[in-house]
Amino acid sequence: MQVTINVNDQDYTRDVEPRLLLVHFIRESIELHGTHWGCDTSNCGACVVWMDGKPIKSCTTLAVMAEGHKIHTVECLEKDGVLNPIQQGFHEQHALQCGFCTPGMLMTTRALLNDNPDPNELEIRTAISGAICRCTGYQNIVAAVRWTAEHEAAAK
Amino acid sequence: MAVVEQNLPGPGPDLERPIGYGRLKRKEDARFIRGQGNYLDDVRLPGMLFGQVLRSPYAHARVISIDTTRALALPGVHRVITAKDLETLGLAWMPTISYDTQAVLAGDKARYQAQEVAFVVADNEYIANDGVALIDVEYEPLPAVVNARKALDPGAPLIRDDKAGQRDNLASPTWEAGDEAATNRVFAEADVVAVRDIIYPRCHPAPMETCGMIADFNPNTGQLDIYNGNQAPHAHRTVYAQVAGLPEHYIRIMCGDIGGGFGGKVPVYPGYVCAIAASIVAGVPVKWIEDRTGNLVADSFARDYVMHSEMCAKGGKITGLRVDVIADHGAFDSTAQATKFPAGFFHIVCGSYDLQASHVKVKAVYTNKAPGGVAYRCSFRITEAVYLVERMVDALAIDGNFDPVELRMRSFIRPEQFPYETTTGWTYDSGDYAKTMQVALDICRYDEMRAEQKEKIAAGELMGIGVAFFTEGVGAGPRKHMDILGLAMNDGADLRVHPSGKAVVSLSAQTQGQGHETTFAQIVAEEIGIPPEDIQVRHGDTDKSPYGLGTYGSRSTPVSGGAVGIVSRRLRDKARMIAATMLETRPEDLAWEKGKWYVRGDPGKAATIQGIAEYAYSGKPMPAGFEGGLDAQALYDPPNLTYPYGAYICIMDIDPGTGYPTIRRFIAVDDCGVRINPMVVDGQIHGGIAEGIGIALMEVITFDEEGNCLNSSFMDYLIPTALECPGYELGETVTPCPHHPLGAKGVGESPNCGTPPAVVNAIIDALYRSKGIRHMDMPCNPARVWMAMQGKAEPPQ
Lengths: 156, 797
Prior knowledge:
The complex is a heterodimer of chains A (156) and B (797). By secondary structure, chain A is of the alpha+beta class. Chain A is built from 5 helices and 5 strands, in the order E-E-H-E-E-E-H-H-H-H. Chain A folds into 2 domains: 2-76, Beta-grasp domain (Ubiquitin-like (UB roll), Roll); 85-155, [2Fe-2S]-binding domain (DNA polymerase, domain 1), CATH 1.10.150. With 797 residues, chain B is α+β, with helices and mostly antiparallel strands. Chain B has 3 domains: 42-142 and 210-258 and 265-298, Aldehyde Oxidoreductase, domain 3 (Alpha-Beta Complex); 302-476 and 640-789, Aldehyde Oxidoreductase, domain 4; 491-636, 2-Layer Sandwich (Aldehyde Oxidoreductase, domain 4), CATH 3.30.365. Helices cover 27% and strands 24% of the residues of chain B. Chain B has 18 helices and 33 strands. In chain B, the strands form 9 sheets. Chain B has a 7-stranded mixed β-sheet with strand order 3-7-1-14-11-12-13, sandwiched between helices. In chain B, strands 9-18-16-15-10 form a 5-stranded mixed β-sheet. In chain B, strands 21-31-32-33 form a 4-stranded mixed β-sheet, with helices on both faces. In chain B, helix 16 (678-697) links the parallel strand 32 (661-671) and strand 33 (728-732). The longest helix of chain B has 28 residues, at 556-583. Chains A and B meet through helix 2, helix 3, helix 4 and helix 5 of A and helix 1 and helix 16 of B.
């Protein structure tokens, strides 16, 4: 069946099987490889994208369910060659190692900061508790979110 | 907001922008924070097909027939490969890294649940999965044995009837280390003996990216290109040459970015061989990406050791250790170990203590479980050894009524005893254990915590303080002592400085997130003074890097780091020859200051490394006998392992009603010698603590009596999230490794040694002081802690 899905503010029309997962639409149909797949069961969060600005797991969302919604992926964060502060924060605080969970973590934490510009440690840990990182032990991810919150507050 | 590339280091000296060692931010971040990493599943080749594996539903069953008719009739399915097809290619069985053989696809029978039975090649992964569902296999189920303690029972089903002369499920002869008679004497003279049966349950590395391969065989040229995230590309190429009978120089392995390894990407898996076979028969590239269930149930597991342990003390000091282990190797013996060490490095089990005697026995058994025994952030079974000895020290503290810290302090190997030969034959290089322990106690405020604990116990609350002290031997290893499948465990390095003063260093180590592109550039920068941003680190492509055995067992810095240190010094010596010609003086009149050779006593007369590089490629006169250019090669054979160590303390609160354990604080003080990039070292320790917490509290692979794996997805193989992990309080001491070119030791696996015993000791400390409970096995999840509190804790299956 044919669907038109808006990804990163651009419409993509493709013929898809009804069973096609959104993560595979993003990775295979429109070739945006930043969104990763890690577990099949909605546990790991490597596939997190935004649907209408809210983080969702694209491995347990059908592509057809995304029609009529706005999808954003990690590729939307950098604008005109300028990194989003959350990307900078992850770099500054060594909040990534292998990088596989990073796109999902970035989308999860950016969404948190959009809703709550000054989250405390427990709020940050709760927000990323649906995403697994096997490398960092989370401490530097928490620090990266705080770094970003403080830099964004200072920039205002 | 600056872009990350602009944030890379400029001229030092600045701790954050060093030309050399320091907290340099990582180069590789630039692509990862943009979602531009190049992982295996991101690779697209023209005409590529997709493979999927059909797995056995039974743990033990004869394969009566395989009917692929319905699968082949499905549009989009190209081929179905079975054991019969592999036989014609000579690929039905493959050697393991322990000199056993493993069925690539089950032909005669399936020996574990999820064993590979057939491989479907189709247009895309959805159709491949449909094809798998349409294969009709007739099985004759057989009794299974999944408990290592029952595998040697007389009536146990024989698993390896394919092996001539195999009459039982023993996978190895009993292997021994230490001195049995001396140990018996020490035990006879002891005044306290603690005895425990300790189980280190099966768990799994579970990297975020599963395993997979793209095999691209060109029938016209005979060239086999392999895209595969593995931890040892050069060793894999040699193995494929042996397995497939292909010429090694026509095999090229390309590892892009790897989404975590932790040991799980060391072995060669049946899916890899199937992808290669499929590409050979189909003549097009074939991609296989494992699903998460396949990863958890069929890929290399870790641990699975049943350890009968006895430790004794005399006069308040630990004197002896006796250990008898049954190692569960699953259906095929593919445990990771250097060949002369049949039980891996388990006999480092005497830990950090000056024992009078020890005796260790290990035997391995086959069970109807997935093969492996590969490390999970662990050097060849050292993790099991550390867990055993640190649990036993606490057991001895309980049974002998000692303070666990004082018992350790009294029993440590003393600084003046190094180099120290242990009772099982290791030669520890350096250490000041009491100093490191004291740093941890100070961070912890140990006495204050013990006082609080007393108050809590009086108030009916459960609080535990768990202490662990580990010594690891990492950086395998010396050619005279160790090899894998006959390959010396050495690593190469190749350094080229170009005319513009920019350099490329090529490694045989293979990063899976450890930050090699940054830290190895820092080593070169430290040695020759070229800024790290002017040094590209190349690795992962067997056509573009020197031979070596890769990254696992915390060996990158100990072995590859040594190679890079030496190659840099060779290049620096070469630069000195050229500088002497440039400055019209003798090489011996020159002195080195980072980045330049200058005339001794006349520092204004100098040649920078960049100036020397430009000169080296110019038409100007060269030193006599010198061909020009500025490059060097090295292969590093380490003289010994490096011996990092550390003191870890866990402060634990347990809900007295539910048994729910909460880690309140976690202190880790590591001594890994010289730290090249302290930020990266801290990151390694953070991640290893989280994995250690997972192992201690929740990560476990278990089976029911029929051999069904009960932990086949992240719904039931639980990995700690940010909510189960505390903030970590780190400290350090620095005792340079005396024999390593950089003074560095490995560190990646240290936290996975120290953390599980610290966490479990904390739980048992809480349960013993409040309820008199002296032992429980991992995982210490709430249900099992609650059962232990009721006196009903069972060992895991």
